[in-house]
């Protein structure tokens, strides 16, 4: 990855290479921490805009609350620092990573006085599943690893440690020659991909997983709003993997992955085996919104 200049750590800017932690950092051992992924896009007017910053900051605090971590800043302070980290690095377009973690102090699974630490970093990050994926669709496979049970990991919290599950699934399918893994929940229904929510299109209508085992994606919400504005019906419910096989279109949504079409699942061609028309329409409006070309979605932008 391409280094940027500065990282915000516990209220101060430090050089990229100086943003270090002790090896006994509690979260490094036990995974109790939370993060956010946010994107900032170059806009038409030559400036930049962070997409849905307030919603990301809110989810950051909610993730921490679920984990009983008290962030020693207000939401307004974190949002302000998020804007500052983009400015400090003079990045027109970037991915922003917010992280809250428990520092070193006590070891063991009853952290008491370990400091709550925050880092905000930004760097250039292109198409998560490739430009080709955005245009032509990716090949996905259902993983043999189930998504977290809702009573084991807290799936509404973007918990650092929880992502080992995604990494196992991703490695499994990439090794088998696919681009991304689709994960089922512990009852066998479609959940989400390793770092994206999932949508299917059938007979002109959209369907996405209900808020059970999935992360409540901000891109998911954005797509649901765009679909509503296009008068496309969206249903939120659990569905099975074979419904995906016979869908007209399937796509994934995420801050990193944006709106990525899926052209094949478990060696079955989805629809015509390329980006579908509804996917293309939603994707186009999504990029118009994030890049400041759609005035009706201006309220989602924090211009900087
Ligand atoms: N599900 C999961 C498991 C997930 O990690 C993400 C985001 C989403 C759904 C979509 O959420 P949202 O970004 O709010 O639409 N995944 C982040 C991490 C990617 C990474 O590799 O790191 C992201 O897209 O930033």
Secondary-structure class: alpha+beta
* Count of individual helical segments: 8
What compounds sit in this structure? Answer: ligand PPE
Q: Major sheet: size, sense and barrel closure?
A: 9 strands, mixed
Large-scale geometry? globular
Q: Let me know the number of strands.
A: 16
Distance between the termini: 24 Å
| Rg from Cα | 19 Å
Which regions have little confidence, pLDDT < 50, spanning 5+ residues? none
- Element-level helix/strand string: EEHEEHHEEHEHEEEEHEHEEEHE
Mean of pLDDT: 97
Sequence-ordered SSE layout with sheet pairings:
Blueprint: E1 6-9, E2 12-15, H1 26-30, E3 33-42, E4 48-51, H2 53-66, H3 75-88, E5 94-102, E6 116-123, H4 131-136, E7 138-142, H5 163-175, E8 180-184, E9 190-193, E10 197-202, E11 205-208, H6 218-229, E12 234-236, H7 241-245, E13 249-254, E14 258-265, E15 268-269, H8 277-290, E16 301-303
Parallel strand pairs: 7-8, 7-14, 11-12
Antiparallel strand pairs: 1-2, 1-6, 3-4, 3-5, 4-16, 5-6, 8-9, 10-11, 10-13, 13-14, 14-15
Helix pairs in contact: 2-3
């Amino acid at each position: 990855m391409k280094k940027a200049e500065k990282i915000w750590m516990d209220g101060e800017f430090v050089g990229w290479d100086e943003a270090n932690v002790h090896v006994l950092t509690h979260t490094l051992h036990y995974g109790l921490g939370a993060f956010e992924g946010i994107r900032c896009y170059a806009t038409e007017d030559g400036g930049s805009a962070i997409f849905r910053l307030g919603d990301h900051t809110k989810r950051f605090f909610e993730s921490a609350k679920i984990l009983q971590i008290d962030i020693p800043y207000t939401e307004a302070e974190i949002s302000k620092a998020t804007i500052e980290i983009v400015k400090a690095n003079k990045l027109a377009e970037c991915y922003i990573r917010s992280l809250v973690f428990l520092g070193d102090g006590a070891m063991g699974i009853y952290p008491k006085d370990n400091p709550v630490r925050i880092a905000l970093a930004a760097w250039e990050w292109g198409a998560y599943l490739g430009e080709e994926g955005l245009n032509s669709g990716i090949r996905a496979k259902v993983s043999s690893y189930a998504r977290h049970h809702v009573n084991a990991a807290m799936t509404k919290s973007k918990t650092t440690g929880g992502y080992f599950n995604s990494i196992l699934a991703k490695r499994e399918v990439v090794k088998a020659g696919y681009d991304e893994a689709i994960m089922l929940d512990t009852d066998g229904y479609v959940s989400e991909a390793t770092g994206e929510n999932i949508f299917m299109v059938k007979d002109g209508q959209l369907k996405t997983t209900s808020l059970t085992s999935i992360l409540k994606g901000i891109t998911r919400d954005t797509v649901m709003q765009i679909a509503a504005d296009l008068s496309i019906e969206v249903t939120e419910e659990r569905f099975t993997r074979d419904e995906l096989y016979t869908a007209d279109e399937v796509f994934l949504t995420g801050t990193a992955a944006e709106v990525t079409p899926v052209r094949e699942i478990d060696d079955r061609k989805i629809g015509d085996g390329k980006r579908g028309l509804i996917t293309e329409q939603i994707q186009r409006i999504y990029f118009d919104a994030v890049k400041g070309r759609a005035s009706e979605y201006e309220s989602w932008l924090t211009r900087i």
